[in-house]
Predict the structure.
Amino acid sequence: MLVEGRGVEGDAHAGPFVRHRYLARRQPRLPNIRQVHLIPAELFASLSEVGFQVEAGDLGENITTAGLDLERMPLGTLIELGPLRSWT
């Protein structure tokens, strides 16, 4: 469940402030600007080509996308999510 202003319910990094240990120790009130972690499925194929075997969930992402160029999307882009789909 996505919770506005917090992230993914139950996720270790959810909340209004950064939760990564390194940053939280130094700046505990630093805003959490990455509350939901998206990774493109295409990354797994690229990593496999150079010898890394990773699958959905291995990199700590909350959502794996396909066919979206996440890195080129403008700041403030809204992504609508549909029904859960298994990639296995």
